[in-house]
Sequence to fold (100 residues):
Amino acid sequence: MANFGVEWNRRNRETNRLAQEEQRRIEKKQRREEELARAEDERVEEKQRRARAEEYAARRTRIETRCRIAEIQFQLDPSESHRRSLRTALAVLAEYGDLF
Fold:
């Protein structure tokens, strides 16, 4: 009878050990999946940040180019239409200047 009790106890411990191993494997897999998901989210965020930065730089370049063109046109021909273009370009720079 004592051997039966000892054997029963051994089987229970072995079953518990196997269950704990399986639980650890599952947790490890979940952590790995979470890390992969987090890394993917970070890659997406970085890609979006770079896209916004490129868009911002392109917008800034367009505004600066517009102002330079207006300045050159006014210097070459200080007519009223070029003066208005220059004023408009300077107004845009003044409006968006704080963003740059």
In short: The mean pLDDT is 87. The chain is about 90% helix and 0% strand. Residues 2-76 form the longest helix (75 residues).
